[in-house]
Amino acid sequence: MAMRQTPLTCSGHTRPVVDLAFSGITPYGYFLISACKDGKPMLRQGDTGDWIGTFLGHKGAVWGATLNKDATKAATAAADFTAKVWDAVTGDELMTLAHKHIVKTVDFTQDSNYLLTGGQDKLLRIYDLNKPEAEPKEISGHTSGIKKALWCSEDKQILSADDKTVRLWDHATMTEVKSVNFNMSVSSMEYIPEGEVLVLTYGRTIAFHSAVSLEPIKSFEAPATINSASLHPEKEFLVAGGEDFKLYKYDYNSGEELESYKGHFGPIHCVRFSPDGELYASGSEDGTLRLWQTVVGKTYGLWKCVLPEEDSGELAKPKGGFQETAEEELEEIASENSDSIYSSTPEVKA
């Protein structure tokens, strides 16, 4: 019997989902944060998609969101010319970092003491979160708005991408080490610490570069324009999504297309593997996040593997008996736990 991929659909946002990030694995599991043009970033349990809370305070579209390693802090970048740092346990806003233009990207150092930001004013800023009143360090050199900025090499270096250029910076000297130009707009960038791999997408290309030298490693061509790609933690697979509403899964070594799935009702803007590699999450123009199994048919999270003799239906259906989404279960969980989540009313739509 062929096994069917049944994604879990996480509703609640009212506008396109443009960024998402997972925390590391904590004693309480791992967590997922999403950035949306509705200005209300959301925190969820990473393995199930269960809604935990909504960070309320931005006055414009949120373009970037991230969690620190142990999921105790969150950071968001928004069109209201601010980046905000949040207590991810209570949902409280800890600080607002004013900028001179739209902020697109945020990233914590491994010790959570510093926050890196970038945006439309073409400057990288480094904030000391232990000294919120201090002016940030600034790094100039980009010639167009910064789309993504990430710490790398144990926070000794910084990777940043603007429209068609990726740059590597030295943190200590605040100077550029190297840059690479592309003939198309870079749509996404992911940094893999294990092996120092940089995953880039531009046009229909998914490219892998050394994060140390920026030298190319390999690249694959997809059937459609790709907006985001993510490499499996064990570097076995990669997933990508873009303008044709589909998610593609490739063998990292051979480049062979293994699977493709259509579940979203709009272009896919972001995709990331979970820290344990068991699932990947996608965010779309349709306002939803979807969680997909890496190995279809495995019992994990809300998915339960039902053997043929036990049930004549599909394998690996989400628990709860629904076919396509986890919306009803998310609503039920949000309702049951409404006293322990930060927003007074669940942000999950029917």
From TrEMBL:
Entry protein name:
Serine-threonine kinase receptor-associated protein
UniProt cross-references to PROSITE patterns, sorted A to Z: WD_REPEATS_2 (PS50082), WD_REPEATS_REGION (PS50294)
The record's Pfam families line, in alphabetical order, gives: WD40
Task: Tell me which InterPro entries the record gives.
Answer: WD40/YVTN_repeat-like_dom_sf, WD40_PAC1, WD40_repeat_dom_sf, WD40_rpt
CC per GO annotation: SMN complex
Q: Where is this region: Disordered?
A: 312-350
Chain intervals with Acidic residues compositional bias: 325-334
**How does this chain assemble?**
Part of the core SMN complex that contains SMN1, GEMIN2/SIP1, DDX20/GEMIN3, GEMIN4, GEMIN5, GEMIN6, GEMIN7, GEMIN8 and STRAP/UNRIP. Part of the SMN-Sm complex that contains SMN1, GEMIN2/SIP1, DDX20/GEMIN3, GEMIN4, GEMIN5, GEMIN6, GEMIN7, GEMIN8, STRAP/UNRIP and the Sm proteins SNRPB, SNRPD1, SNRPD2, SNRPD3, SNRPE, SNRPF and SNRPG. Interacts directly with GEMIN6 and GEMIN7. Associates with the SMN complex in the cytoplasm but not in the nucleus. Also interacts with CSDE1/UNR and MAWBP. Interacts with PDPK1. Interacts with TRIM48.
Question: Molecular function (GO) terms listed?
Answer: RNA binding
Describe where the WD repeats fall, as residue ranges on this chain. Answer: 55-96, 96-137, 139-179, 261-293
What keywords does the record list, in alphabetical order? mRNA processing, mRNA splicing, Repeat, WD repeat
Record's family? Belongs to the WD repeat STRAP family.
